[in-house]
Design brief:
The structure is a single chain. The chain is of the alpha/beta class. It folds into two domains: 123 residues, ATPase, nucleotide binding domain (Nucleotidyltransferase, domain 5), CATH 3.30.420.40; 91 residues, ATPase, nucleotide binding domain (Nucleotidyltransferase, domain 5, 2-Layer Sandwich), CATH 3.30.420. Strands 6, 7, 8, 9, 10 and 11 form a six-stranded mixed sheet that branches. Strands 3-2-1-4-5 form a five-stranded mixed sheet, sandwiched between helices. The chain starts with a strand and ends with a helix.
């Protein structure tokens, strides 16, 4: 099964082509350019260099959230467009789960974190035996204080993964926890992790259609929160 995976949930973006659990090729870019300019050209060039075409892809996969609202929309829209045109299935995978699969070779606990602002991180905890990743918690937005309380009860070595790892490492070590970080080249989100998570969805019969694929933001955007606050304020004034 050939999987074309897209990752645009944060500052960097990447694309990979995988066949089952084998990575064929991956392209990664952290140039500061917007994903709308880089993601699809990266996919086209990668397939060309592999001697493959879109028609050779069996599943189109994407990191569907949490993450940057704009980055998720770009990635999901690109995945939907590619799959729709060819009537191929999609896998919208958890960004946090994809991070864990990217480091499944590390036996222990994988604590996947992204900066969610507002004194919180997007987080999910997983455990790996060196091959298979098992989820311990759902994806959630959680404060560092709450996360530290959970991790104090863990009996496993904890590896922080994701673009929020450095932030969490500094805070958690100051709280007295022993946590670790992988080197930068393994720390951040990658399309390879997306492909590995997508393969598990395919094996479990959990793929979706391009029409059904949607981003999973996990909370309202700032603009939506401000709109709801204005509406609440206006309703309060009208009721006085």
């Amino acid at each position: 099964m050939k999987i074309l995976a897209l990752e645009s949930s944060a500052v960097a973006c990447s694309v990979c082509l995988a066949e089952d659990d084998r990575l064929i090729a991956q392209s990664y870019e952290n140039s500061g350019l917007t994903h709308s300019k880089t993601l699809l050209p990266m996919a086209q060039e990668l397939l060309k260099n592999c001697g493959a075409g879109l028609e050779d892809v069996d599943v189109f996969a994407v990191a569907a959230g949490p993450g940057s609202f704009t980055g998720l929309r770009i990635g999901v829209s690109a995945c939907k467009g590619l799959a729709w045109a060819l009537d191929k299935p999609c896998a919208g995978v958890s960004t946090l789960e994809a991070m864990a699969w990217g480091l499944a070779l590390w036996p222990g606990e994988l604590c996947c974190v992204m900066d969610a602002r507002r004194s919180q991180v997007y987080n999910a905890r997983f455990v790996s035996d060196g091959e298979i990743v098992v989820r311990l918690t759902p994806d959630r937005a959680i404060s560092l204080e709450e996360l530290s309380t959970e991790l104090r009860e863990s009996t496993r070595p904890v590896l922080l993964v994701g673009d929020g790892a450095a932030l969490c490492y500094e805070a958690l070590t100051q709280m007295g926890l022993e946590v670790r970080m992988p080197p930068p080249n393994l720390r951040f989100q990658s399309a390879w992790g997306v492909a590995r998570a997508a393969l598990r969805q395919a094996q479990a019969g959990e793929l979706t259609t391009a029409n059904q694929l949607t981003p999973n933001y996990h909370r309202l955007s700032q603009a939506e929160r401000e709109r709801l606050e204005r509406e609440k304020s206006n309703n309060t004034m009208e009721g006085e």
